[in-house]
Amino acid sequence: MVRRAMSSLAGKRIMVTGGSGFLGRFVVDRLRRHSPKDVFVPRKADYDLRDRKAIARVLSDAKPEIIIHLAAVVGGIEANRRHPGSFFFDNAMMGLQLMEDARLAGVQKFVSVATICAYPKHTPVPFKESDLWNGYPEETNAPYGLAKKMLLVQGEAYKQEYGFNAITLFPVNLYGPGDNFDLTTSHVIPALIRKAIAARDSQAETMSVWGTGSASREFLFVGDAAEGIALAAEKYDDSEPVNLGSGNEITIRELAQKIADLCGFRGRLEWDASKPDGQPRRCLDVTRAKERFGFVASTPFEEGLRETIAWWESHRQK
User: Range of 27's domain?
Assistant: First the structure.
């Protein structure tokens, strides 16, 4: 009988900021499979991580040995365009203060989950971690992307000066059941699903889609992302950043048509070129994650889309 080695997370007190959110719920589920002593999820109503006094309270209450920092103010292109100041300030203040106070409190490991929006606008495809500093991010996402990117700088600096074990992960665009389907703040996949189902149900002849459709994206199923984060928390201790992705690229035009087909919308897609495309291309080199801690995405894209569509069909108000 072959026995699996005990996880390094077993018996640990783990705090997951943002643990009640879309990604967070999946991460908490994966962590519990590693037999931790406790997984503590702070609620914003109880601990506003922009407030340093609240951070001191949550560290005192939870006494975490490991922190996985997922909490973020996020949204699609339109939300980023409307709120660049708050997206920058809120994300920067939460992360920078939390990592500093975690260091002072003797936390053993800090896992910072950043964003693919931190990459330069014209990064060569596939994005390699070594390209992170080779230009400015795409303008609509830059304040958010740079705020999260500062945690990479902080983690590397803290490792150098204090020996603090901080790692930084860069997941690509996520999707899956439980995603945000609010059209004012959602990302592209839930927005397209909601539009396609509404157009199908109303028997519309056309469906409006943002941009030209020429931009490309890579998508990672939320359950796969959670598995990658848990693996990194368990096995990865270097300060070098690591991409988390599927390694598969698709244009927005192809994506929109695929979602329309899966949702049963048979009308015509109308592209609104007055709306921005965002970053021209997005696809990751995922070699480092495989080599350093054995992460490989396993959910086929169409299967993940079907699960996401089924979730929205069962949860929407008709």
Answer: 13-175+219-248+282-299
Given the residues 119, 144, 175, 236, the one annotated as active site: 144
* Average pLDDT of the segment spanning 136-153: 94
Let me know if residue 158 belongs to a domain: yes
Tell me the pLDDT tens digit for each residue of 216-257.
999 999 999 999 999 999 999 999 999 999 999 999 999 999
CATH of the domain at 47: 3.40.50.720
Specify if 193 maps to a domain.
no
In a domain, 256, yes or no: no
0.90 exceeded by pTM: yes
Residue 162 a catalytic site member: no
User: Which tens digits make up the pLDDT trace of 176-223?
Assistant: 999 999 988 788 999 999 999 999 999 999 999 989 999 999 999 999
Measured CA to CA, the distance from residue 150 to residue 16 in angstroms comes to 19
Structural contact between residues 39 and 31, judged by C-beta atoms closer than 8 angstroms: yes
CA 284-246-212 angle, to 5 degrees, is: 65
Cα–Cα distance for residue pair 123/143, rounded to 1 Å: 17
Q: Which two tokens stand for residue 53?
A: 């006094």
